[in-house]
Structure formats: structure tokens, C-alpha cells
Amino acid sequence: MLKYIIEREIPGAGKLTAEELSAISQGSCGVLNKMGPQIQWVQSYVTPDKLYCIYLAPNKEMILEYTQQGGFPANVISEVATIIDRTTPGQRIFSRIYINQVQEKLLQKIWQQHAKRYSSLAKIWTKHKKIMPNQIPKDLFGNNTLNKKLLKEVY
Q1: Sign for the pseudo-dihedral over CA of 124, 61, 146, 85
Q2: Contacts of 59 (CB under 8 A, 6+ apart)
Q3: Complete edge-to-edge strand list for the sheet that includes strand 50-57
Q4: If you ran DSSP here, which 8-state letter would residue 155 be given?
Q5: Which in 36, 63, 117, 137 has the greatest CB count within 10 A?
Q6: What average pLDDT score do residues 141-151 get?
Q7: How confident is the model at residue 84 (pLDDT cuts 50, 70, 90)?
Q8: 118 with 150: CB under 8 angstroms?
Q9: Where are the alpha helices (DSSP H) in 36-147?
């Protein structure tokens, strides 16, 4: 799933009481429960006049659907490209672009080796140019984690 930040303009948000924040949370959770596990609320940050809410979802359209169903403001919806923190220096940053490049190389290698077995996966890739983790056969990567041996073969 992809990570999104929703910026919500709510004048006086920083002055909301615990009860008011709880009511907002309950309303959000109610909509999320109706929509199912494909969209998940991670956490929110309350500032004086805005809320910054972190969500996991397969696409931006699902975030928009969630905000419309709940009647919540969503002034800006941004997909998180990369996360950095104090441990980032000296580490390789795995942005979504890099992961997609690795995924493409892996799939090309797989198709060469298992063309018939994974032909439906190849058709999805050819049509949409991306594959969600839940579309990757579990026996291919072992619980959807990248197989180190296959990664070594690609590089």
C-alpha cells in the first residue's frame, strides 16, 4: 500500500477538546470500518488550524472516496514518495521509483524463467505497468518479501 498525507484545514483545531477529537476519530473509524482493510488510518497531527493525517491506501482515489463518504475536509492529498529521518545519512533511500525499477527487473527475470506459470501476472504488468503486492504469488517471494537469491540474480 502507498502512504498518503491529508492536510485538513480546520480553524481552531489546536483548541479542540479531547472529547471533540475523540468524536472526530470515531467518525473516521466508522467510515474506515465500512470501507474495509484496504485503507488504514495511521495517525494524525493536530496544529493550531490544521490536521495532518497519515493514511495507507492502494491509490489516491480511495482516499478521496473516504473523505467524501465521511464528509471530512481534504484540502491537500499528497502521496509520500520517500521517508527520511535521522538514520537516513549513509543509507540507501528506497523511493517508490527505485522499488518499481527493482520490481520490473525482478518480473522480467521471472518471466524468462517461469513464462507459463506467471502469464497472468505478465498480462497485468503489461497493461498497468505496476503490480500491487497482493497480486504477487506468495510462493514467488515467500510471504511477499523480496527473495534475496532472486535479487542477487537481477544485480
Answers
A1: positive
A2: 2
A3: 40-46, 50-57, 2-9, 76-79
A4: -
A5: 63
A6: 45
A7: confident
A8: no
A9: 60-70, 96-114, 119-128, 138-141
Over the stretch 15-71, which tens digit does the pLDDT of each residue have?
A: 999 999 999 999 999 999 999 999 999 999 999 999 999 999 999 999 999 999 999
Which one has a higher pLDDT value, 54 or 134?
54
Nearest-CA neighbor of 10 among 64, 40, 46, 54?
46
Question: How does strand 2-9 pair with strand 50-57?
Answer: antiparallel
User: Which pLDDT score, from 0 to 100, does residue 104 have?
Assistant: 65
Instruction: Flag whether the pTM goes above 0.85.
Output: no
Torsion angles phi and psi, residue 65, rounded to 5: -60, -45
Cell of 14: 489546536
Strand, coil or helix: what is 46? strand
Instruction: Decide if 46 contacts 21 (C-beta within 8 A).
Output: yes
As beta bridge partners, residue 79 has 4
Q: In angstroms, how far is the first alpha carbon of the chain from the final one?
A: 25
